[in-house]
Amino acid sequence: MDIVKNGLSTGSTSISGLTWGDTLAFTMDAPTVLGTKNTATITIGSDTYTWWVGYADSSVTAKIFVTKSSYYGYQGGMSTYDTYCNSNAATSTLGLSAKWKAIMSDETVNAYDRVPWNWKTLTKVDGTVVVNNGVVDLFDGSLLSAIDLDQNGDVRVTDVHTGSFSDGSKNSGYTASSWTASYSSLAEGSSASSSSTWLYKGSDSSSYQNAIYCIEDVDDASDVTPVAMSIPYKTQVALSSVITSDQVAVGGMSNGATQTLSVTATGGSPNFDVERGGVTIATGVTSYTVKNADKITFHMTSPATASTSYKMTAAAGSTNFYWRVWTGPSSTGVVKRVFVTSTDPNGNSFGGASGGRYAVPIARLCCLSWRNMESNLVRGV
Length: 381
Known about the structure:
Layout: E1 2-5, E2 8-9, E3 24-27, E4 37-44, E5 47-54, E6 61-66, H1 78-90, E7 100-102, H2 111-114, E8 121-123, E9 129-131, H3 135-138, E10 159-161, H4 176-179, E11 185-190, E12 202-205, E13 213-216, E14 234-237, E15 242-244, E16 248-249, E17 258-265, E18 271-276, E19 279-285, E20 287-291, E21 295-301, E22 309-316, E23 319-327, H5 352-372
């Protein structure tokens, strides 16, 4: 490391005799291993600063979103908000990864020092580029696109808790005592902004609920188990027909993690297709290695018998989830009808708002009666 004073190298890591108006700069060798950084502690008088130089992987793309949910600003420290980021990501229909960090500062830690940085390009969840020159680009006061999409890709224009200045440094006195104090001052940004106000536009009370910015932890490798997929069942399907599921996304693993997805069933020869990046890479397979954001479509032949189901079990690591297909009844033209009586139990006609008090319970009684009395089904077309 070298200290540069007034534009000239000193060749030293320690100097004295600084006077008002002197300028200082510092040089430090970058690391030689991808994903690592060298950190320097700089002391000037009684003030101490941290500076680091990282070797980021230019092939890596990270994602960022603003939470759909809003939170108070006194929930108990930044790790709590990291948890909120993870829980929001887990609800996404887009197959997001497992671990995320909240972009915020407290009284001792700067946002730019805590966020993941081992990437070159940062995008919203729909692929729109936010910055394309690394983490320094994120905090330089200008974005290519505002961070205005939530974890599902829906537009979310809102104020955002940050506790930071626009350069990502801590905004001391405006972090709600490191995210613990109610009715306390808290720096905030705007998800509608692509200027420096995305991170700092002013302050508000920590007792107001705002959203959080969440950035993907691209270096985390702790989770290789996807979240269970929710696949809508198919009912009243034709006999002995190949039934296709709704398309669902793999998600919930660490960035870059993979897992083997396999299917079995009580019948119907289940299989699935895999789409990655808009391209189908596997069709009709019963086992395949998948990763986050892969889109899966399942297929299964329905039973040859009416009013029967086959149940598919899909396994990915320690996660199991299910899909069923049910055939319809053998008879056709059967209609089950429900009705509401025209009078109340005392024979009085319903009228206006007062009649509404009776309509709901009467309808329920009729429904239960018809469902439990198959011999009284009304047949028609």
